[in-house]
């Protein structure tokens, strides 16, 4: 069984809910998925040993949150090339964070991007639960390849 790490960065909790739904979707496909708050990632070795990585941050003031920026610098120290990647984030109107995270995973880490970033205004409205679980399913399927 392949293992995914879902890391979220949140202020008000919405991005955490999305993280948990994505992890459910990955598990529906028979893979392992752990969910951690970015505050638990203290050193690059905390990120080691997974087949897939899904990173998420809410958007504040047009950017990803500082905790996610710091974690991406830690991730840069690892060799994540060709690992499966996805990104996500809660947003209000512009939602830059998830796209910026995926840009880094693609351009710097050279990971295998499953699909575009998942941006949700709410995990519970407008089909958000289904969309987040489906995003996880797509990652889980890719992990089988
Ligand atoms: C002070 C403040 C600034 C925000 N700036 C943005 C922004 O620039 N773009 C955007 O799309 N949403 C913005 N939002 C909305 C948040 O992204 C939204 O509330 C999101 O659900 C928060 O996610 P979280 O619960 O994971 O922290 C802002 C919210 C606050 C309170």
Features of the shown structure:
six-stranded parallel sheet; binds flavin mononucleotide; 37% helix; Rossmann fold; alpha/beta; 145 residues; single chain; two-stranded antiparallel ribbon; globular; 4 helices
Quaternary status: single chain
- Based on helices, strands and strand pairing, what is the structural class? alpha/beta
Mean pLDDT: 97
CATH hierarchy, class: Alpha Beta
Low-confidence stretches: none
The residue fraction in helices comes out at 25-40%
Q: Main beta sheet: strand number and arrangement?
A: 6 strands, parallel
Inertia-based shape: globular
CATH-defined superfamily: Flavodoxin domain
Counting H and I runs of at least 4 residues, what is the number of helices? Answer: 4
Tell me which ligands are bound.
flavin mononucleotide
* CATH fold descriptor: Rossmann fold
Number of domains: 1
Q: From the alpha carbons, calculate the radius of gyration and give it in angstroms.
A: 13 Å
Succession of helices and strands: EHEEEEHEHEEH
Strand % is: 15-25%
**What CATH architecture do you see?**
3-Layer(aba) Sandwich
Measure the end-to-end span.
Answer: 12 Å
Care to count the β-strands?
A: 8
Descriptive report:
The chain has 145 residues and is an alpha/beta fold. It has one domain (3-143): 3-Layer(aba) Sandwich (Rossmann fold), CATH 3.40.50. Helix content is 37%, strand content 24%. The protein has 4 helices and 8 strands. The protein has helices spanning 14-28, 66-75, 96-107, 128-143; strands at residues 3-9, 32-37, 52-57, 59-60, 63-64, 84-90, 112-113, 118-120. The strands form 2 sheets. Strands 1, 2, 3, 6, 7 and 8 form a 6-stranded parallel β-sheet that branches. A two-stranded antiparallel sheet has the order 4-5. Helix 1 crosses helix 4 (128-143). The longest helix has 16 residues, at 128-143. The chain is globular and about 35 Å long. Flavin mononucleotide binds at residues 10-15, 58-62, 90-95.
